[in-house]
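hi! just following up on the protien thing from before. the input was this:
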Amino acid sequence: MTQLPTLRQLQLIIALAEHGSFSRAAEAVYVTQPTPSAAIKELETILGTVLVERGARGAALTPAGEVVQERAQRVMR
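and the predicted 3d structure came back as:
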């Protein structure tokens, strides 16, 4: 059975794109910091690709992450 992304994962990748860090994305959607990190990691596993480049100064979407984030925005509308 194919696993699909959850609405929460889609919400979190949108927040991450808007805020540029896992901690600020967590604050924006009222969850603790580990939640977006774990959710995005699981989303990467489901989709089989890296969506986020993680760094000391924050996080940035990869090209694949940008595509997923754009589609997530359409789904959430």
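Residues 8 and 31 are 11 Å apart (CA to CA).
The chain is about 60% helix and 10% strand.
cheers
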